[in-house]
Amino acid sequence: MVHVPEFHLGKNLLDNGMTKLLITLVLIVLAPMIPLYILNISSPIWLPSKISESRKCDIFRGKWIPYQDTPYYNNATCREISDQQNCMKFGRPDTDFLKWKWKPDECELPRFDSGQFLELVRGKSMAFIGDSLGRNQMQSLQCLLSRVVYPEDIVSYTEDARFKRWFYVNYNFTLASSWAPHLVRTIDTDPDGPTYNRLLNLYLDEADHAWAAQVEKYDYVIISAGRWFYGPQVFYENGKAVGCHLCLKNTIKNLTMFYGYRKAFRTSFKTLISLERFRGVTFLRTLSPAHFENGEWNKGGNCVRTQPVSKGEMKMDGDDLELYLTQVQELRRAKREGRRRGLDFRLLDISAAMVVRPDGHPSHYGHWPHENVTIADCVHWCLPGAIDTWNELLLQMLKRERSRGAIQ
What we know:
Helices cover 27% and strands 17% of the residues. By secondary structure, it is of the alpha/beta class. It is globular and about 60 Å long.
């Protein structure tokens, strides 16, 4: 403890200005002993003050507030929107779902700055690994960046559109997509069977080679998985079937989808940690809620709301909550294990924001009416739309990564 002596100052001393001199001398002596965090000067000055390394502000907890500015882009200005999420192209009549902004409880979430994002990733690379919702987010990012530049060169190692790379020449930035809906090696037991609910064999201790063979070169990895685990699956470990979910086979032990889900993430994180040349930052994007109402997904369920709902009206529960908690638990485990190698694992937690956005899905506006598509899409998200917020959050996380690097 630093002891500050008392000074008993008489009237004459006050009159001749000695008080100010003594106080100045005391401050000069004590200044080196004051912790820097009290002075709030540890964060780089280029970060916005309300977001800079703000541990007091949880940007993932907040509410949607009305916002009347026009969207960042539309289906005429961005060529990267898949038809399935191109709600304006296929005649969605309402636009209220575009007029909301995510507001964290204790700070502001800045609008997406395309130029700032591209500067942060200059000379780096980023891969989205997972299912079509990961691709949904990546296409949102491409549209957001198109306000500044389109990739001038496409560099791909396959003709499969699910595995693509884009190169932003002026920023030396590579963006990639890798389709791996279960994250682990998967074999379709009936490739010519029905589109939905085919039995799949999941090798839970083997990462999907499609992404594992490529991931070492990336500086940022955004990994996600979810809806595909609801279907029938046989789980394999060490080459042997250890159980199944909805497989209807009496000779195999019944296991829940949560077993396979946990193992898939554990194997994926373990793979990243074990790759000798991998030095990237991994972001786990949490579960994206579906919003089927008035029936199940294959029994007439739809999503026709036009505005967000209150937290009390919709919340994450049941199986979705269990999947979400499983993700978070496995990420915490990965953070502990990754720390030994100096690897960072971060949580891109979009679940609380999106569970109250049943208005944001394409429903039947991802195709023409005459195409006779009977199942509504209440899983993916319209572009533009609420999913653009995921990349607003990602941008703030990248800023924090830069801040951590500057402090270290």
